[in-house]
Amino acid sequence: MNWVALKMLMGDRAKYLSLIFGVAFATLLMTQQVSIFMGILTRTGNQILDVNDADIWVMDRHVRFLDEARPIRDGQLERVRGVAGVAWAVPLHKGQVLSRLENGETRNVYLTGVDDTSLAGAPTKLLAGNLLDLRQPGAVIIDKAGYEYMWGTEPYQLGREFHINDRRVVLVGVCEVGSPFFSVPIIYSRFLEAARIMAPRAKATTFVLAKTAAGQPVETVRKNIEAATGLTALSRDQFFWKTVWYFIGSTGIPINFGVTIALGFIVGAAVTGQTLYLFIIENLRQFGVLKAMGLRNSRILLMILLQSCVVGGLGFCIGLGMTAMFFIATSGITALAGIHMTWHALALTSAAICVITLGTSLFSARKVLVLEPAVVFRG
Questions:
Q1: Which of 98, 180, 273, 314 has the fewest CB atoms within 10 Å around its CB?
Q2: At what angle do helices 253-282 and 13-43 cross, to 10 degrees?
Q3: Is 149 helix (H, G, I), strand (E, B) or coil?
Q4: pTM
Q5: In 12-161, alpha helices (H)
Q6: Exposed, middle or buried, 12 (CB in 10 Å: 0-12/13-18/19+)?
Q7: First and final CA of the chain: distance in angstroms?
Q8: How many CB atoms lie within 10 A of CB 15?
Q9: Are the C-beta atoms of 312 and 356 separated by less than 8 Å?
């Protein structure tokens, strides 16, 4: 009977292909939008994930997300260093400031000041230059997307001078880091250099990065720091998710992408459901003959489910391939860096496609299950 079910499904090529491409289009729309949504949300905390040296971020109690960094008293650094279980702690500056290029044009940039001695918090992957050159006076390193944002497609030119907050700086490297949420260049310098650039602002420390001693649980040390300093101390993952949840709860991003994803689900369900329903209605006579031959409703239901599984499986694979081709084609675009198909999107979409195909096939099967075999022989 499985062979009969497949012959019925593929007998009308036009309807067979429309069923498959209805599922494929829904798969493409949902997988692509879910992946882009997750990629954009990840960007909000990429600068946290890029710091692999430290286990704990210490910050002002009122900080809600990464870009809302508030200065903390410099004396707090020594208090963190004195907490039991802390191996080392270093200051980190993060802030947004105005830069001025050689031709007089201005750009907003994210300025990150890392520890002068250990360079903890600095980028690890450089596309040009040497990280140790950051120790030179006025030296800064910029991320790849930031370089293209400031100087377009010009080849990497180290040694070029420009100004940040009216302070002269020298470019000594180009690095590759996770793209930020906003298209703003990320500039790295030493902490004291960042303090010089930010002057006359008195407090340059916005975060303290802490490393736990060997064998010390991060959660215990984190709570010890909070008790000793009165500041907020979060693990890297905790701070990342705090930033992500801030953007989910405080911006229109989830609503906009949620609407698009819901539309993909509705369009896919409507196209697949309608076509599958019409397919079953048009084959009522064949199903009636099978029932007259003694086939039970349960066997006919299995035949319909087999047809829907074939359509859903093929449509899902084609849609997945189309999504993969889209991300491969856009992988070289700097503005879309870090946005790719994720296994979360894959799992969510596969579950949605299962619901669409099985749900619509079960709904359409009602006509067959209540069909009286004798009816098909009348007239």
A1: 98
A2: 170
A3: helix
A4: 0.77
A5: 13-43, 46-49, 75-81, 144-151
A6: middle
A7: 27
A8: 16
A9: yes
